[in-house]
Amino acid sequence: MISEVTPRGKEFLFFSLFSIIGKASSFIGPLVSSAIIDASASKNNSTPFYFLFALSLASFLFLLFFVDLGKSRVEQEEFLEREREAKKRIAGGSDGGDGESGIGRGL
Known about the structure:
- This protein is mainly α.
- It has one domain.
- It is built from four helices and no strands.
- The protein has helices at 2-5, 11-39, 47-66, 69-92.
- The chain is elongated, with a radius of gyration of 24 Å.
- The model has no long low-confidence stretch (mean pLDDT 83).
């Protein structure tokens, strides 16, 4: 699903962020699980499962109902078009049309 909402050409940014979040959760997850076990009255080792299951279910439902893949594809195309136009302006040396580069102008 991440690849469907990621603009083409920017995948490395999104997947790098995804990797960092994954590494952080692998560090934080056991701490949260231990805290849940310690806070429960029964000290049952399966208690974190119920919390993580509910969290996973809530995340799934959020993504299912609030992420519009069709809208994302349209926004992705618009973003890529703006990026292409910006690259053309930079490559073409467009400086705003007044013949000056803007360097050295008084404020």
